[in-house]
Amino acid sequence: MLKEISFWSNRYTGSIAMQSFKLYDTDNIEMTNTRILTQATDPNARFSAYEFALFPLERLNWNSNYRAEFIYTEDNELKNKTWFFKTRATLYPYYQVESNNQTLQVISGKPYVIYIQPTDCNDTFNGYNYSYSGLSVDSIGFNDLNSIYVQVSGAIGNSMTVNLNNNTSFTIVISATDSALSNTSIPAELRNSIIDFGDQFGIRRLYSKISLRNVLCQFSATC
User: Fold this and answer.
1) Which pTM value belongs to this model?
2) Which domains does the chain possess?
């Protein structure tokens, strides 16, 4: 699953040299924890002299706007390309777990995504167990490597504790209200999280799945 922002052009036959490749968040703050691949640094030796890719080394937020800026010289003439993208939304309202043993209020019969904020790009989980009292578990499963979906039914006050195999636990308690973050609907054609610009403005492709998990962990054990 690719998670990259890349610049590529088959129009140019002259000299192309990258000056900078940057990513900015919704607040216009540069995300500096990134890795850039070029023909010289591509570990698979597949990039051409006209291909450049930026990989964030930390997960981006769901349903958020970002700006990419690529500055380069073409035959010694300074140029730049800027474009914007929005990461995909979750299918359900979601909670973000930022500390161990956090308690989350949920409404009976309503599905949620529970996102466990990773400490780095190696911080994932692939297993869990749970215990509960008084309620019924309608559904539970993996949403991705950092989140699960869950739906429970029962009376107010019923609870369930989930233990993940990355040493993180959280408890959900059925309540009359919740404080989950709202998800936003996206068009069906974008639900595969891929936006393709073709060669418009020299941009090869832009994957909004960049919000999920960074593939560069395969190049670095510690990120």
Assistant:
1) 0.63
2) 5-88+185-219 (2.60.40), 94-174 (2.60.40)
